[in-house]
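Chain A, query sequence.
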Amino acid sequence: MKKTGEMVIKNEFGLHARPAAALVSLTSKFNSQIFLIKDETKVNAKSILGVLVLAAENGSTVKVEAEGEDAEDAVQQILELAENHFGTE
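Chain A, predicted structure.
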């Protein structure tokens, strides 16, 4: 199963280390392959270095793409985490 979604980064300083760590902690719980896509860059959402490479600033839109048995649940929880400022604000 493949599932996609989009999240808008609402954190004042963007997707910096603390929200990226929260995101990686969440994505690591899922068996699905999960990717984040911003502009032309696609990274593994289970890699904190990959997430930081996106340099997603406040207000930017990031596409979430998951493929696997728990893809739908993964995308839903990622979007909820983003909506809640990654639990950091």
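The chain has a mean pLDDT of 96. The chain has three helices and four strands.
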